[in-house]
Amino acid sequence: MARVISVEAERFPIAGTFTISRGSKTEAEVITVTIADGGRSGRGECVPYKRYGETMEGVRAAIEAMHDPIVAGIDRTALLAAMSAGAARNAIDCALWDLEAKLTGTPVAVAIGAVPTRPLETAYTLSLATPEAMAAQARANATRPLLKVKIGSDNDMARIRAVTEAAPESRIILDANEGWTDENVEANLAFAAQHRIALVEQPLPAGKDDILRRIAHPVPVCADESVHAAKDLDALAGLYDAVNIKLDKSGGLTEALKLRDRARDLGFGIMVGCMVGTSLAMAPAVLLAQDADFVDLDGPLLLARDREPGLVYRGSFVSPPERVLWG
Fold first, then answer.
1. Stated pTM of the model
2. How many beta carbons lie within 10 A of that of residue 64, not counting itself?
3. How far apart are CA 128 and CA 274, in angstroms?
4. Domains 4-106 and 120-318 fall in the same CATH topology
5. Three-class SS of residue 166?
6. Domain coordinates of the chain in residue numbers?
7. What is the pLDDT of residues 169-210, one digit of tens each?
8. CA–CA separation, 152 vs 175, rounded Å?
9. Is the domain 4-106 a CATH 1.20.1250.20 member?
10. Are 177 and 22 in contact, with CB atoms under 8 Å apart?
11. Does domain 120-318 have CATH number 3.20.20.120?
């Protein structure tokens, strides 16, 4: 029996507004792929991302263009060659992993050597706002052990001060989303170090970050927009101390595993992150992140409504997915 593929665009409301240096949104727009074979089906979710030139329509079209190879039985290795990294390949790749687990009875965690699995401490993201509003967000979440703070605008030092004072016991990741400049990056990094920041993520625009090779890193600096696949890593040596692996950038779990292993070989710290999506998008990333240095898989915590069943979050700890969800 040939495989059957279906593609669905879905929207999930965000609890409030999610704001970064590039703009705001009030809902998560996702595309879900289901691949059925032999009475079993596997699912994968992706989040098209405008920063990388992706749209809901374009990603859906890219997935649908793979209809014939998928029906014919393309495997994950061939998929890497057939499609470029990005959201479309991610949804297909993760659906294939889930389908394989269902057909073989071997959980994905076992297949990738991630057992025994354990709950992970995830960062919780605070949206970009005024220093006063960000302090209020931090105060409301001050019991969480790890906060990820969106910055990358004017007056970031005031935001850093406000958040660290409002959540004095939390470790803090700063995510500038490419919003700093050559003129302010050194001063901002020094200020971050003075305020016990644990990590600074993508301070400068991808491809315009060479100054990081020449300046001190009093706080470790993590690449996000600058890294998509394993082939990107060699060029980042000496620029960054860590890399943020996201399945929607790498184009699925298959490439993400290669990226993680190569990054470890090169001495990079590992962060596993996400776009704002549902538990279906987070599930494979939770397995990828079992040995990560930093975990940022709070997408469902930012939603007003998640999938059912979803991942189980207890405070800032997320448990590995049950097989009814994924894998």
1. 0.96
2. 13
3. 17
4. no
5. helix
6. 4-106, 120-318
7. 999 999 999 999 999 999 999 999 999 999 999 999 999 999
8. 7
9. no
10. yes
11. yes
